[in-house]
């Protein structure tokens, strides 16, 4: 890994571092796990959980942030600009490792200037407060700069996974009526074919674009920022003004736009401090892509608000490269995901020992159930427990965690953070006692809670169907010590390698293929990825099943939807079980797959 100086202007180079499917789950008793790991090498930021839990007040915590007159705030100002005046001006904000292993360093001052230029360029293009600007880039510095720039001018940032195909893009850009998209030449090809279906999309900005290849209303990023001013008035926002819009999957329909606001930064800041336990001399690596909420909240806003040096790696996953990142960058705090950890475990211990991981002091995981055996393996090879925590795109911040100040119970998600009241309830919203399985709910009022679903109030209201509770859609139980244990989703949402995938999206992409007449999609348990996507299809007249055809269908879904959202398994059926109203019964498909009792089938359509 070679450290290269970033071309272009740079002032002071001194840096500071030089499952469950059942619908009625209440009443089932959870098994207690008495295994605990008590080991945390440094003095944690949050030292006494019980005391903090009893006395913490979000209003008090507001003092940790920078506010404008009249109670206004800007999350990007807190993430970047304020560090120009707190001694961190020349501290490295970003160590960006490119796919070919070159490392660029960006100080807070440099991110400040670059985001100001980008903000001014967007304003020149007519972007106004509340406009949606989407970012469709791999993990390159411009992704981070653009996200900050969009927030600074009061526009709404729309993070997109670079793995998305045209269908996934179209759904998000159409629904949000995005005005601008920032991308690169390779990813732009996925956009070109759907451009005429996006009447609201005014401009495309291409990072490292070749001007001669661009059409009308397309600009290179470089030409826009070249002459733009480094001075920008950071927009004072009402705390309730939108900050970012992130699409996520539910059980029915297309992905929904979860709306988060500038006030979220309060939750980002405090949870980063407590859960990620970042200190001023930490080098922090969040492996998540900002197309996923973890990458936006804990890859950008949370750590930067705490003035932390962030490592980002554009390259793909493989054990050797990942350990190399930790070794070469001297990563101290590492936030990753169970599938990645399982894959590392599969890669073996030998590859771990080929690197020096001595810098690591703290490892965290999120997004899927973390198997106790992975935690034990982590103890063996890293000498550290892996701290699991729980949250969602909708919750906007971590809510339940194995905090550094408390013993880790392998297999548990931890305890609710100070300022957060979580519970397990039955379907009537009655709280259940320790050991009883039910719905995981949270009392509304934490700072980063979703504010609405973009232009879909009805869907938003469903989360609060019983007054006083936010329904997460997860099933869980709580033990005597107040630790929460994840059991499964209460709906059909699939969690494959930490990616939340709605079966409907995959079914829609499948039936777009000319050979597919009908499709039903489920999550099938998988040792490595938690779940894989399995599709049951009925072929259109005139088509015969063959390996080539199934491969073509798989490739089609991958191309159209997303690289991670295609069915690894496809089974051809003569017909699919449907309700009388024609809805495919995924519950039955899953029961078939798992060899479970099929339950009530009285609503099945007649043959
Ligand atoms: O089912 C839970 C699972 O991931 C879902 C949230 O996915 P997403 O909105 O993509 O949020 C990602 C940010 C973490 C949850 O409803 N999940 C999340 N964390 C855990 C988890 N399942 C088990 N254990 C966890 N720690």
* Average pLDDT over all residues: 92
Profile the largest sheet.
10 strands, mixed
Name of the CATH superfamily of the largest domain: ANL, N-terminal domain
Q: Architecture of the largest domain in CATH?
A: 3-Layer(aba) Sandwich
Helix and strand topology:
Blueprint: E1 2-3, H1 49-55, H2 58-61, H3 75-79, E2 92-97, E3 102-107, H4 108-124, E4 132-136, H5 141-152, E5 156-160, H6 166-176, E6 180-183, H7 185-192, E7 203-206, E8 218-220, H8 221-226, E9 242-248, E10 256-261, H9 264-276, E11 283-286, H10 293-305, E12 309-313, H11 319-329, E13 333-336, H12 338-347, H13 349-353, E14 362-366, H14 372-381, E15 386-390, E16 400-401, E17 415-416, E18 422-425, E19 438-442, E20 452-453, H15 457-462, E21 470-478, E22 484-489, E23 494-496, E24 499-501, H16 503-511, E25 516-526, E26 530-539, H17 547-560, E27 569-572, H18 586-594
Parallel strand pairs: 1-3, 2-12, 4-5, 4-6, 6-7, 7-8, 11-12, 11-13, 13-14, 14-15, 26-27
Antiparallel strand pairs: 2-3, 9-10, 10-20, 15-16, 16-17, 18-19, 19-21, 21-22, 23-24, 25-26
Adenosine-5'-monophosphate-propyl ester binds next to helix 10, strand 15, strand 21 and strand 22.
